[in-house]
Design brief:
The chain has about 375 residues and is α/β, with parallel strands linked by helices. It folds into 2 domains: about 230 residues, 3-Layer(aba) Sandwich (Aspartate Aminotransferase, domain 2); about 120 residues, Aspartate Aminotransferase, domain 1, CATH 3.90.1150. It is built from 13 helices and 15 strands. The strands form 4 sheets. A 7-stranded mixed sheet has the order 1-9-8-5-4-2-3, sandwiched between helices. Helix 1 runs antiparallel to helix 8. The longest helix has 18 residues. The radius of gyration is 21 Å and the shape is globular.
Length: about 375
């Protein structure tokens, strides 16, 4: 089976983890965790970084920083992972869904404006699959309107919008370090901010509301979302390799683009560039035309030994939440992508021979 992704583990990772074990830096309060947080803050051009046990927890912390009430609306793109919806709901706010661009697969300023009401308090801007949302335009709009901007950069490590890094636009920005991310700790995440008040609050929220001068007296029922020392050690080495990781994925994606270049009437491949922004290909996605059944093609690829993953299912059609709201949404791009999109293997476990095999199998099933 050719897997969609396999994490890279090098001798440098082993050395860093051995060093951490030798120093007995295992807990979330270890020096190695603080080093990792500082490295992440520096890389993403932020003042503060709070590491967490996973990206979903990072979203929970970010949303719960702002004391939303039931009728406070948070706009989110429908085409994204359910962690975003769950975090908004758990914060006490009301999610409002917007559509995405059919070519970039990301929310645009126009998408956002179409969903704004008098009850809008915040925007959860998500960067998806390798390209970014219109971060600069959305940032300016939120500042002008006095809206809180929460930025999910889990899939955009290293991506830039107008010479500014994804992860540096939000009042609060979140990251995931899951095994398939450009920077990984296996499981893990982070919250980024430049606001010292929010930083202090986030520190307490992720650490059971421990306060040094009254250790076991708590004013709030917060969470334990700490990242461990061994995960941080792995992440330090992973961050060092981010440029080469991105470069390798772009090289592989360029070859896929070549292999599929004569079949654009059957499939849509990822947009290569938007303005000055080049796709970083966190994943390599394919969108089928209306005449093809995605599930049948994915199953036949699996039978041939090729693992694939479907695109995100639109949040406004998620059964877990659908019955909780009365509004009916018409978000055609999110629905089209959710029904027709899937992504294929990408990463250092592939070579050109395997890419040729994968592409030939797909082409044989769509012609």
């Amino acid at each position: 089976m050719i897997n969609v992704f396999e994490p890279e583990v090098s001798i440098k990772h082993y050395r860093q983890i051995y060093k951490t074990l030798r120093n007995k830096e295992l807990s979330g309060s270890s020096q190695i965790v603080q080093e990792f947080e500082q490295n992440i803050a520096n890389y993403f051009d932020r003042e503060f970084c709070i590491s967490t046990s996973n990206g979903s927890n990072s979203l929970d912390l970010a949303l719960n920083c702002f004391d939303f009430k039931k009728h406070d609306e948070v706009i989110i793109p429908s085409f994204t992972i359910i962690s975003c919806l769950a975090a908004v709901v758990r914060s006490g706010a009301t999610p409002v869904f917007c559509d995405v661009d059919v070519d970039t697969w990301n929310m645009t300023l126009d998408n956002l404006k179409s969903a704004v009401t008098k009850k809008t308090k915040a925007v959860l801007m998500v960067h998806t699959y390798g390209l970014a949302a219109e971060a600069d335009l959305i940032y300016d709009y939120c500042k002008k309107k006095g809206l809180i901007l929460i930025e999910d950069s889990a899939e955009a490590h290293g991506q830039m919008v107008e010479n500014k890094k994804c992860g540096s636009f939000g009042d609060i920005s979140t990251l995931s370090f899951y095994a398939n991310k450009h920077v990984t700790t296996g499981e893990g995440g982070a919250v980024l901010t430049d606001d010292k008040h929010l930083f202090k609050k986030l520190q307490q929220m992720k650490n059971l509301d421990f306060v040094s001068d009254k250790r076991f007296q708590h004013d709030n029922l917060y969470w334990n979302y700490r990242l461990g020392g061994l995960q941080a050690a792995f992440g330090i080495e992973s961050l060092k390799a981010i440029d080469s990781t991105i470069e390798y994925k772009i090289k592989q994606a360029t070859y896929y683009n070549y292999l599929f270049s004569n079949y654009k009437d059957y499939i849509k491949t990822p947009m290569i560039q938007k303005g000055k922004m080049h796709n970083h290909y966190w994943v390599y996605g394919i969108v089928l035309n209306e005449n093809h059944n995605r599930e049948n093609i994915m199953q036949s690829l699996y039978t041939a030994g090729i693992e694939t993953r479907p695109f995100f299912w639109p949040l406004h059609n998620q059964e877990a939440y659908k019955s909780s709201f009365k509004k009916r949404y018409n978000l055609p791009n999110s629905e089209y992508l959710g029904n027709k999109g899937f992504y294929i293997p990408l990463g250092k476990h592939l070579n050109k021979r395997k890419q040729n095999f994968i592409a030939s199998q797909i082409i044989s099933k769509i012609r």
